């Protein structure tokens, strides 16, 4: 079963705006990861945040993790048309040795 | 929910041996992706296959690694003459169509080379 649940399922915004996607999970985790999937391609790893971290940045991406609420958010600032893709969060438990559990994803559309 | 099944879940091989990882996609899915996750890193794309065809193998090491998805049976990721650096978790995903559809992931095979 897939533990992570992204919210919203679909999001459409104008280019230049910020996009925020949320992810909730149920069990304890070692780390949480965000992935992007462009149409017809495989997943691309974006960022990994460990359970003892609260916030992480990578370029225009900002990820937060709240383990008390079992939730994470992905913020993409100054969105571009090329950011149009599906975004997945994935959790990994068991000291990092378990498999990944993915959510169903948020489909993000950036309108030019 | 008969999702993507990968076996074995754990595989131990000595250096120089061959490793064969199997992936049975969701029934009816004809697109399969393989990913590798090195310790403490995210997934990295390896290869994308459609029944009997390799669509994109840009992430596959040029030597020792091969993948197939025959008309009948599971997809196989084969690693010949394994080395310690091959130790990783290998994930398979399947989708009904390649374009813009959700991919369903298996739980992975953890390969340990000793």
How does this structure look, described?
The complex is a heterodimer of chains A (112) and B (114). By secondary structure, chain A is an all-beta fold. Chain A contains no helices and eleven strands. Chain A starts with a strand and ends with a strand. The model of chain B has no long low-confidence stretch (mean pLDDT 88). By secondary structure, chain B is mostly beta strands. In chain B, the strands form two sheets. In chain B, strands 2, 4, 5, 6, 9, 10 and 11 form a seven-stranded mixed beta sheet that branches. Helices cover 0% and strands 49% of the residues of chain B. Chain B has no helices and eleven strands. Chains A and B meet through β4 and β5 of A and β4, β5 and β9 of B.
What can be said about this structure in brief?
The complex is a heterodimer of chains A (112) and B (114). Chain A has strands at residues 5-7, 10-14, 19-24, 31-37, 43-50, 55-58, 61-66, 71-76, 85-92, 100-102, 106-111.
**What structural category characterises the helix and strand content of chain A?**
mainly beta
| Radius of gyration of chain B, taken over Cα atoms and rounded to an integer in Å | 13 Å
**How many DSSP E strands of chain B?**
11
End-to-end Cα distance of chain B, whole Å, is 35 Å
Give the SSE string of chain B: EEEEEEEEEEE
Q: Structural class of the secondary elements of chain B? A: mainly beta
- Beta-strand segment tally of chain A: 11
